[in-house]
């Protein structure tokens, strides 16, 4: 019974946190506006690892919208003592998260290099990157557990795509969703070419936009180019570039530079066209990869800049604890904004 009571406290507190949070009463610019401006449709960073952990508990135990179901709660795994203590420490009896206490706890963890009672832009980016990496690793581990049927710690193609038989692979169909198309992705991620994927290789497959694998980068750009290449000649002419790629690049550059004028479409096309044939090949598009296909890790830089611009009242490029406390809801807007949630979206799939 103690197990059920403990988990009920956690689950109920999290749902009340989601329901009663007063974010709509604050006039800050929410992160979804940033997402829409930059066209980012994947998972947005979560600032507070405690919130991320709460989300995982509700997801893993099937409590999203079913926290009233005590049968589910009673069969949930028991939290350890430190997790129980966290719930009691940071949640009120009404189920509201004490943002002041959370920020007081997090500030010294972010203020690391140097420890000077300020959070710099680089420190904020480093913190958000840590959270993003943790989230990518967590999701990859969950998928690994699901696909690794023989329990050997690696993923074979047959485990990843069991619906395809040997005849399908022999046909090697390369249209979107066919056996050859999936096999190419798998082989690109298989960096050591041993026929199976390790944890990191599988993470590259699941989250290609966050990979450092050059073959995966080339594949992402090739897939993107297919949708932009209207005359199907395998390259982008200026009109195709201008209508399909330039606006995304321009939005990110303007955000990076604080609204400074971005290069014109003509200027950027000429810069990318290394062989001066008035066409862009996949290799020539590489400098645009993180503008055309931003992943969670690259997006953390933009999100850090957004948080800094919202909370840095004196515009000195760093945050004090008081500034963060004065803008506490900005740092928790990823939880509060429930009306326009972004989908878990992988454009290449």
Automatic annotation (TrEMBL):
Name of the protein in its database record: Calumenin-B
Pfam families (UniProt xref): EF-hand_5, EF-hand_7
Residue stretches making up the EF-hand domain: 144-170, 177-212, 260-295
GO cellular component terms given for this protein: endoplasmic reticulum
Gene3D superfamilies found in the cross-reference section: EF-hand
Keyword Signal part of the UniProt annotation: yes
Matches recorded under InterPro entries: EF-hand-dom_pair, EF_Hand_1_Ca_BS, EF_hand_dom
Keyword Calcium: yes
Keyword list, A-Z: Calcium, Metal-binding, Repeat, Signal
GO MF, one example: calcium ion binding
Superkingdom assignment: Eukaryota
Stretch forming the signal peptide: 1-27
